[in-house]
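At this stage, I needed to go through a protein sequence along with its fold in C-alpha cell form, as given directly below:
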Amino acid sequence: MAEHLIDALGEMCPIPNMMLREKLKEVAVGDIVILETDHFCAKQILETEMRRMGHRVTAKQVMPGVWQVAVRKVR
C-alpha cells in the first residue's frame, strides 16, 4: 500500500476532481490518494463522488481554508 499526494491548491472545480480521477487510474487497489485543496466546494464534491464510486473517503481541514481529502482505492 502506498500514499500519493496531489497538490490542487488554487485549482477550482472541476480540476481537482479530474486530477483525482486520473490518479486513481494509475494507483493500485488499497493505495491512498490524498488531495489537498483550498476550495470547500471541491472538498464536498470529491467526498460525494468518491463515495458514490465505492471508494473509502475521509476529509479534514488541516489549516484554515485548506482541506485534505484522502481516498483509499477499493476497486
Summary: The chain has a mean pLDDT of 96. The radius of gyration is 11 Å. Residues 6 and 35 are 5 Å apart (CA to CA). The beta strands are 3-7, 32-37, 56-63, 66-72.
